[in-house]
């Protein structure tokens, strides 16, 4: 028997397909392994003020558009699946940050290695400014899925587009799924370079004044275009 397609699924089809594409791409790019990460996109249309997020416990290769779960800002869940266990920080980031349209969360190996040392990424390379500031912070540890973790993540993301999560992973946000994904790849690249630098010495950090110049150039030239 053919089940009639849910009107919401049809209406949000491109967004649902985009979420699945990014979820698959982050594993393909080596910034996530297995089912550990999650991806979401804000949805705002008549009667809905919330977001779409990957489901809990479904391998990305087996995830269909109907498996993507809708969560409202009130925490109401609409869909056949259970949303990612990290839906709280997705909800709270969207509520705190009107500039954010998409969120990518991964357990990228190098970013997570630094996060396990409770180390953020300082201004060791000018491209750190791609995340919006002079550094990429590491949020304090809290149990996955908790309000405490969400509160820490929102705080670490203040004036930033990415943060690490202690003993856990990283979050990258952006104005689109593509931008959030590209930033997650960039953060993992920076984490790897910082990690490699630490193997042979103490990296020389760029001054706050120099990072301010870089941030101004990014803002002026729109390169890289993350905002
Ligand atoms: Zn996680």
Describe this protein with a few key phrases:
7 helices, 227 residues, 38% helix, globular
Classification by helices and strands: alpha+beta
- Can you list the ligands bound to this structure? zinc ion
Tell me about the biggest sheet?
A: 8 strands, mixed
> Looking at the structure, what is the overall shape?
globular
> β content, as a range?
15-25%
Counting DSSP H or I runs of 4 or more residues, the number of helices is: 7
Helix/strand order, N-terminal first: HHEEEEHEHEHEEHH
What percent of residues adopt helix (DSSP H or I)?
A: 25-40%
Over all CA atoms, what is the radius of gyration?
A: 18 Å
Topology readout:
Elements (H helix, E strand, L loop, with lengths): L6 H5 L1 H16 L9 E8 L2 E6 L15 E4 L4 E2 L8 H10 L5 E5 L2 H8 L21 E2 L7 H10 L5 E4 L3 E6 L2 H24 L7 H14 L6
The structure holds zinc ion.
